[in-house]
Amino acid sequence: MRMISAADLESEASGQGAIPLLQIRSGMFHSRAFILGGVSIQIKAALEKIRQIGYKHEAF
After folding, report:
1. 18-56: per-residue pLDDT in tens?
2. How far apart are alpha carbons 19 and 41 in whole angstroms?
3. Three-class HEC string of the chain
4. How far apart are alpha carbons 17 and 51 in whole angstroms?
5. pLDDT attached to residue 17
6. Is the pTM value of this prediction over 0.85?
């Protein structure tokens, strides 16, 4: 599982302008962002497995 660095979050937030940098630097948001990053990676992996199974059964 890939870990998200503070620099990644800051560049992403500054690009979108959605999350203030002070929130990212605070410990609470930082740990929450790590958890959210892990969850999104798990979802992507699950979707990839579903696609592979789908191709085998020609469902998709």
Report:
1. 445 544 455 544 555 555 666 667 777 887 887 777 666
2. 20
3. CCCCCHHHHHHHHHHHCCCCHHHHHCHHHHHHHHHHHHHHHHHHHHHHHHHHHHHHHCCC
4. 33
5. 47
6. no
Distance, CA of 36 to chain centre: 6
Q: How far is CA 17 from CA 10, 13, 53, in A?
A: 10, 5, 38
pLDDT for res 2: 57
Calculate the alpha carbon distances from 57 to 30, 33, 45, 51 in Å: 41, 36, 19, 10
